[in-house]
Amino acid sequence: MIVNGVPHDSLILPSTVTVLLAELGIEVRGIAVAVNGEIVRKSQWETTMVDHNDIVEIVTAVAGG
Known about the structure:
65 residues; mainly beta; Ubiquitin-like (UB roll); five-stranded mixed sheet; 7 strands
């Protein structure tokens, strides 16, 4: 799996987006997740599966001007 451009071989897969974020130690507040180029709504993190061949992008909202 590739997360934000970095290969991750030691993750427990398949898993859900929620489990993936916990395993990576990522705070879920104020982030957005895309799997294979498709935005995943937060309400779907518990049911959206990710696996070895997926590309995941995790972005954090930043305030500023």
